[in-house]
Design a protein that fits this description.
The protein has helices at residues 3-25, 28-36, 40-65, 73-89, 94-107, 111-140, 148-174, 184-197, 204-229, 236-249, 261-272, 277-305. The protein is mainly alpha-helical. It has one domain.
Length: 328
């Protein structure tokens, strides 16, 4: 069995497993009835909030990339959209790899520093959503609602992302490229990683951290609006729980549009808020159909256009093809 078939098999198995768990808690008939009552006004507002979220994410990635190259905002936004959209339909978050590959093919940026910048981006995201989930559960616990599974998620997610942060900071301090000078190719790649990770030890990291917090305002709002469209208004603490649970669920193997894992995360979060599981499952379906899949379609069209003009528009002058040896 080759790697792609194995990834596909694991994704399908996880999708079926988590869908079964979600619909065991939320009867299909109740989910269907909830979907039939969807309020299009709130759903449209959710789509708009998610678009603002993506626009801010592109700005943040542009700042992170400054240690590698100066890239126009329009270029960064298009490439980011490719990565986010293809993540929705591809297993094992391969959209991130294609984001770096697409940047390399269309604008000449080296893959290694771009991939490292994506790791930095996801590190800030991961620490933020773990924080959202922890804060939300802290305040939700005052109501006495059980959330043992979500507490386990906080512990596991926190351990993973803080470990990644420790490795990234240690990598930058040790500068392993110095010990590989005899192997010019390897030393060059390691130096590119060090250059991209340098932002974590610079003042720009504060700007990225603040911008990340701002990003999660429209992100949280979009989730709140989707649940509102399904018929339930969440409080602030419960919205933070939903943000953390939904975001961390996308790290698990799943079907297209995070099928299965997203349903289970929404169900857990809505039940934690004291709402019916059917609203959680229905809200996840609405998010997949009306937010994630349209982004995936747009991303696929951009990716298919490649350097043929759909994204390339002036791409040769959009970014410096050579990574700097050190960020400013």
């Amino acid at each position: 069995m080759n790697a792609r078939l194995l990834q596909f098999t694991i994704g399908v198995a996880c999708a079926v497993f988590f869908l079964a768990l979600a619909f065991y808690r939320a009867p299909v008939a109740a989910v269907g009835a909830t979907l039939a009552r969807t309020d299009p006004f709130w759903l449209s507002a959710a789509v708009f909030a998610y678009a603002v979220n993506l626009a801010l994410r592109a700005w943040r990635w542009q700042i992170i990339l400054r240690g590698v190259a100066i890239v126009r905002y329009s270029t960064v936004a298009r490439v980011l959209l490719v990565g986010y959209g293809l993540n929705t339909i591809m297993p094992a978050r391969l959209g991130e790899l294609l984001r770096a590959e697409f940047f390399n093919k269309t604008h000449g940026l080296r893959r290694v520093p771009v991939l490292t910048s994506i790791v930095v981006e996801r590190l800030f995201d991961g620490l933020t959503v773990v924080g959202c989930l922890a804060i939300g559960l802290h305040f939700a616990a005052r109501t006495g609602r059980p959330a043992a599974t979500l507490i386990d998620v906080v512990v596991a997610g926190g351990a993973v992302f803080f470990a990644v942060l420790a490795v990234a900071l240690g990598f930058g301090r040790l500068r392993p490229s110095r010990f590989c000078r005899r192997f010019s190719g390897l030393a060059d790649q390691l130096a590119a990683v060090e250059c991209a990770l340098a932002i974590l030890r610079s003042r720009r990291s504060l700007a990225v951290a603040i911008l990340t917090l701002i990003i999660y305002l429209p992100d949280a709002l979009s989730l709140w609006l989707v649940v509102k469209a399904a018929g339930l208004g969440l409080g602030l603490a419960d919205t933070l729980v939903l943000v953390g649970a939904a975001s961390l669920s996308t790290l698990l193997p799943s079907g297209p549009a995070f099928l299965g894992t997203l349903q289970f995360a929404y169900v857990l979060a809505i039940e934690s808020a004291g709402g019916p599981a059917a609203i959680g499952a229905a809200a996840a379906i609405l998010a997949q159909l009306c937010i994630l899949l349209p982004v995936a379609v747009i991303a696929t069209l951009i990716f298919a256009g490649g350097s043929g003009g759909l994204l390339y528009a002036g791409g040769a002058n959009a970014a410096s093809p050579t990574a700097r040896t050190s960020p400013k």
